[in-house]
Amino acid sequence: MAVKYSRNHEVAYYECDVNQTMTFPAMIGVAIKTSEEQSDALNRSAEFIHRFGLTWVITNYHFQIQRLPKVGEKIQITTQAMEYNKYFCYRNFWFHDEEGNELLMIESVFVLMDIENRKMASVPEEIIAPFESEKIKRIKRFKAIPKISAGKSLPYRVRFYDIDSNQHVNNAMYFNWMIDVLGFDFLTTHVPYEVNIRFDKEVEYGNEVMSHFEIVTDNGIESRHEIRIGEQLYCEANILWQTKELEK
Amino acid sequence: MAVKYSRNHEVAYYECDVNQTMTFPAMIGVAIKTSEEQSDALNRSAEFIHRFGLTWVITNYHFQIQRLPKVGEKIQITTQAMEYNKYFCYRNFWFHDEEGNELLMIESVFVLMDIENRKMASVPEEIIAPFESEKIKRIKRFKAIPKISAGKSLPYRVRFYDIDSNQHVNNAMYFNWMIDVLGFDFLTTHVPYEVNIRFDKEVEYGNEVMSHFEIVTDNGIESRHEIRIGEQLYCEANILWQTKELEK
Q: In chain A, where do the E strands start and end?
């Protein structure tokens, strides 16, 4: 049974949007901070990983949201390294309210990248052992992300503050570009309940990305997203929404 | 003697830029959260103020920085409502490190705005009394902010996440636009030690602002900033910098 780690967090006003609920970048921020704290506690800090010439890269998130955390709310974030195979590490996050109700769950995929050649590296036992996650053979598949057939797009320049203290464009930023294109009216009348996102390639400082999107209403309300520079795909996602009146 | 209020904060990786130090939006975020907590503790929450048909607006910040807070560092933020006159409330913030050394100080000016007519309102005793700040007659003047003579500029669109749960463009965002124009090379070789900023007019969602700037090196290193839409000025600032080698 893998080791769980929890921390408490009070949702600040600056972590919330006009809906009074936490933004995706803020949720990812506190989630990743929780996993960093666990890694530090197990002596597997980013610095330790760097000694192997490696660094963690996140390739996927899958959110299942019952209710978004609200401004002022005290929440608990729990994380657990679930399973790993030769190349992929699967980590879950759970957000709970003060009464212990689950607010949301995030499944994620982490890989180790060789800092020199920027290629994916196999997972050394010495790095992964303290998390006591289960070694598996198979590769877990996340839901397919549907392509955009005919979308609109807006340009976004990567800003200085989009690069965090880990020296990379924080992948929480992709959410900023994907959410923004949907516009005020949509975003204040709809609530997300499922998100599937894949990071394909790393955007760099100074890049101008295009945030492409399409809203499909064949079967519920779905927004589809692609972050591209020219034809090159950097990130793709889809988000399932319900209207606010129907909110659980 | 006015009432002081303090809170502790651990600086998260997502609050820091590539220099491993806290961004201006993050510093303003935790400062304002501290003053909101004090107001709540004294039963003078935003909701209480709204009952008077009023809302707080910040018009000025003046930062004096000895050292920027670092990633992972445990800091303490203290605030105190210092003085007020008919229209202006003067509030200070101090950031200290774990050893009690002052990292930075922010002087600020708050005014009350009538929510209906969007005009400045005089400060009711009932709102201000619990803070036990000193009533003064004079208007405290902040340092003049020099105008730009011949600058460059970049455009920024106000994004959905730039509006916070207080329903306004968070004034911390202006820093995002002002800092970004200075570029990676400047920002990784210089450290700010004084900032003077004035908010003249409120930017709205959907606006595209121009972030004008000029670097003047007559007497030390100074960046001058103006956020404008066309000829209309929304925000002006100047920042004094030292090169990283000379950092205190």
A: 4-10, 54-65, 74-84, 88-96, 102-114, 120-121, 134-135, 152-157, 190-199, 208-216, 221-229, 232-243
Q: Find, among A126, A210, A140, the residue nearest to A174 by Cα.
A: A210
Q: What is the mean pLDDT of chain B?
A: 93
Second-level CATH architecture of A4-135:
Roll (3.10)
Q: Which of A23, A77, A161 to mutate to test the interface with B (most CBs of B within 10 A)?
A: A161
Whether A4 and A76 have beta carbons less than 8 Å apart is answered as no
Query: Does position B11 have pLDDT exceeding 60, yes or no?
Result: yes
Task: Give per-residue pLDDT as tens, B163-191.
Answer: 877 777 888 999 999 999 999 999 999 99
Q: Crossing angle, helix B173-180 and helix B24-41, to 10 degrees? A: 170
Name the residue in chain A with its Cα closest to that of B23.
Answer: A161
Every domain of chain B and the residues it spans: 4-135, 152-246
Four-CA torsion A217, A218, A221, A224, nearest 10 degrees: -80
Q: Is the pLDDT of residue B44 over 60?
A: yes
DSSP annotation of B165 reads T
pLDDT > 90? residue A101: yes
pLDDT of amino acid B1: 59
A18 and B165 in contact by Cβ < 8 A? yes
In this prediction, the answer to ipTM > 0.90 reads: no
Q: Which CATH class name applies to B152-246?
A: alpha beta
